Amino acid sequence: MKYRKLENTDLWLSEVTFGAWAAGGWMWGGTERQEAIDAIRASYSLGVTSIDTAPIYGQGTSEEIVGEAIKGLPRDSFQILTKYGMRWDLKKGDFGFHSKKNNGEEIDIYKYAGKESVIKECEDSLKRLGTDYIDLYQIHWPDSTTPISETMEAVSRLIEQGKVRYAGVCNYNAAQMAEAEKYVGLASNQVPYSMVKRSIENELIPYCLNHQKSILAYSPLERGLLSGKMKPGYQFAAGDHRKDVPFFKDENLRKTNEFLNLIKPIADEKGITLSQLVILWTLEQPGITIALVGARNKEQAVDNAKALNTALTPDEIAIISNHLNNLKLEL
Question: Which domains, and CATH codes, for the chain?
Answer without folding.
Answer: 3-224+275-311 (3.20.20.100)
